[in-house]
Amino acid sequence: MPQTISYRFFAPKEDKVQIDLNFDDRTYKLQIDETADKPDWAKLSRNKCSNCPLGDDVEWCPAAVGVAQFLPAFKAKFSYEKTIVEVETPTRTVVTKATFQTGIASLLGLTCATSGCPHTKFLRPLARFHLPFATEQETVFRSLSAYLLMQYKKNHDNGEQKPPTFDDLNEAYATLSIVNSFLAERLRDAVERDAALNAVMILDGFALITPENTDGSFLDLEDVFLVE
User: Fold this and answer.
1) What tens digit of pLDDT does each residue of 194-207 get?
2) Domain ranges across the chain
């Protein structure tokens, strides 16, 4: 049974925009209708990421195809336009007042993480427990916690007792930042205004935050464990 997360955007004097994302229950990979539109800008060869591991036998960029399913609804939106966003997951509903760039950023992040892009797969466990509109501190806490748990399980399954490091996580986020820059170039061919482009920049900002906390200082988490 597919899992569904729905994003609904409400703006004054405009029709509601609803985006339904369906995910494989086991892998949590985004499910795309085979008959869905695939615009030219979503072809892998168009603004292909410089670090993309996919070969010429792959015609479409997985992340771009995912984004293409909802981008037309926002291509004429300015980043500063106000909206109310309602996000319904299988377990809860989150409602917030936001700008379109913030709402699209949350939707983009979920889509790219689950799209099947090789460079975003490390985010899929977080997507399974999607937290819309997470703050910087929440993002750092969730990213580091999930990664350490993954390392612990991997070492346990392999019968190893390696000390935890964040080297692979830092590399993954550095790679993700490159992906974000090329995704922004793709979207320039598909939008008329800046809401979606700024949404990618918001995502890239979050991609830079976590590595800044892996040197042992954990600056953004200083007060998280204070209980008195």
Assistant:
1) 999 999 999 999 99
2) 3-221
